[in-house]
Amino acid sequence: MTMDELHDQLFQLLCEIDDICKRNGVRYFLDSGTEIGAAREKDFVPWDDDVDIKVLREDYPAFRAALQRELPDTIRFVEPDQFSPMFYDFISRVQFKDLPMRAETEEDRSYQNFQNRVGVDVFVFDRAPAGKMAQTLLRLRCKILYGMGMSKRYRIADAKYTFGQKAAVAVLRLMGKPFSAQWICHRWERVVGAWQKQETGWRFASNYSVEHLHVFPESWYADTAFLTIRGRKFPVPAGYDEELTAIYGDYMKPPADKSQYRTHVQIENSETENK
Fold first, then answer.
1. What's the whole-model pTM score?
2. DSSP labels for the chain?
3. Which residues have C-beta within 8 Å of that of residue 223, sequence separation ≥ 6?
4. How far apart are CA 154 and CA 116, in angstroms?
């Protein structure tokens, strides 16, 4: 699959999600690289090989129900606890059932190939506490639960970990062994949802990677703006510029090293590769 072909598939999938959300009055936003692509390229970022969207926690039940009800048979909605008895991460996914990212391995089979399909990552934005100390504690609890989940991983890719990080992971994996992957996922939902009924003024990207558990002003997500991908308008937070600047700095300037961003799909050479 070339990058151009992959982007065609991803655009089809994103449009399917967008159509379902529009029919059901469900709010969602573009996220991360896909949000940057809409702002900077009016298309996908040329070297990006997946799509990211975000859903506010209060909208997530309706989002999930609409997709489970209306997605065609060729596309599936996968939640973190469906990896059980294994654990991969806390990200929900919308993916093509029969479009692999790469040649299948024994590791992929252990995860039911849920992490080896071309698709869309769904990030959930929960409410976060207002105090810095409480926010730090929240991040810590999320990291602990993620570390416990690693006891259910096929393998641990720890080559880049420091000695201290390896020791911490070993302890957390030991802590996680008595608990099922489903218990860990459900416990995580309770932890990140603890402030959902409170008007704290802050939002928390609760299932980002543990190195990037960002907290943002809730006002950025109060209203919706629209940006264009391939001539079609998609929703972004009204505060998308503030959000992307907080995460990436000058996001309108492409990075010098583009190769660092491809981490998912085996891509054949195409003209896009050289852009």
1. 0.92
2. -BHHHHHHHHHHHHHHHHHHHHHHT---EE-HHHHHIIIIISS--TT--SEEEEEEGGGHHHHHHHHHHHS-TTEEEE-GGGGTTS---S-EEEEEEEEESS---HHHHHTTTTTSEEEEEEEEEEE--SSHHHHHHHHHHHHHHHHHHGGG-S----TT--HHHHHHHHHHHHHHTTS-HHHHHHHHHHHHTTTTTS--SEEEETTS-GGG--EEEGGGGSSEEEEEETTEEEEEETTHHHHHHHHHSSTTSPPS--GGG--S---B--GGGG-
3. 237, 238
4. 14
Q: What is the pLDDT of residues 137-176, one digit of tens each?
A: 999 999 999 999 999 999 988 777 888 889 999 999 999 9
| Angle, alpha carbons 121-155-185 (nearest 5°) | 50
| The two structure tokens encoding residue 130 | 């207002």
